[in-house]
């Protein structure tokens, strides 16, 4: 039996070696084939991506409009008021005396009423047919900027009447200007 098993192992060894070599060769060929297929797929994906990509033409570009004076000013005015209000609230929280706290609270109330009156006047001026308006209330005067190329005497009187009625400021202390 030893002779048969050695002979059998010898033949099986050559056959096994041949099978191993063929297996490795098939794996290499299979790997090369898969690599080739993957490369074709990648090329196909790239070409599809190029086809899907939309080109931008100059006539499709939307022009960026310059910021509007009225909008910009309102934003800046609100920012300044907010900063001032924050500072006053901090003073109220850390006030050394009740009198200081009371003054800060009165200032916040005054700012709130001033803002409310400005918005009311701006809206009433717009209700007169103007596109936009800005109103600036000071202690004893009011300034208004109306969005228009020019103002007639009658339009100035209308705007001054609205401002005077709401603010209580006499027409001589009201300044009105036009801004396109």
Describe the protein's architecture and organization.
The protein has 180 residues and is mainly alpha-helical. The chain is 68% helix and 9% strand. It contains four helices and three strands, in the order H-H-H-E-E-H-E. It has a three-stranded mixed β-sheet with strand order 1-2-3, with helices on both faces. Helix 2 packs antiparallel against helix 3 and helix 3 packs antiparallel against helix 4. It is elongated and about 115 Å long. The chain starts with a helix and ends with a strand. About 6% of the residues have low confidence.
Please outline what is shown here.
By secondary structure, this protein is mainly alpha-helical. The chain contains four helices and three strands; from the N terminus they run αααββαβ. α2 packs antiparallel against α3 and α3 packs antiparallel against α4.
Ends apart, CA distance between termini = 114 Å
Radius of gyration: 42 Å
Approximate helicity band = 55-70%
Helix count from the secondary structure assignment: 4
| Largest sheet composition | 3 strands, mixed
Proportion in β-strands? 5-15%
User: Which shape, going by the Cα principal axes?
Assistant: elongated
- Extended strand count: 3
> Which structural class best describes the helix and strand composition?
mainly alpha
In spatial order, strands of the major sheet run 1-2-3
Which H/E pattern describes the elements?
Answer: HHHEEHE
Query: Which ranges are low-confidence, i.e. pLDDT below 50, for 5 or more consecutive residues?
Result: 44-53
Kindly report the oligomeric state of this protein: single chain
């Amino acid at each position: 039996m030893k002779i048969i098993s050695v002979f059998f192992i010898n033949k099986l060894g050559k056959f096994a070696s041949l099978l191993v070599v063929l297996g490795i060769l098939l794996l290499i060929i299979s790997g090369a084939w898969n690599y080739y297929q993957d490369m074709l797929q990648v090329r196909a994906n790239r070409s599809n991506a190029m086809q899907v990509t939309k080109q931008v033409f100059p006539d499709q570009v939307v022009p960026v409009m310059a910021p509007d004076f009225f909008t910009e000013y309102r934003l800046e005015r609100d920012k300044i008021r907010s900063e001032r209000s924050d500072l006053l609230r901090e003073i109220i929280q850390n006030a050394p005396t009740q009198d200081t706290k009371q003054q800060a609270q009165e200032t916040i109330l005054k700012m709130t009423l001033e803002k409310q009156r400005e918005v009311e006047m701006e809206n009433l001026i717009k209700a007169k047919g103007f596109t936009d308006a800005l109103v600036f209330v000071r202690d004893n005067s009011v300034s208004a900027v109306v969005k228009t190329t020019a103002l007639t005497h009658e339009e100035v009187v209308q705007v001054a009447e609205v401002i005077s009625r709401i603010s209580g400021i006499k027409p001589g202390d009201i300044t009105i200007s036009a801004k396109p």
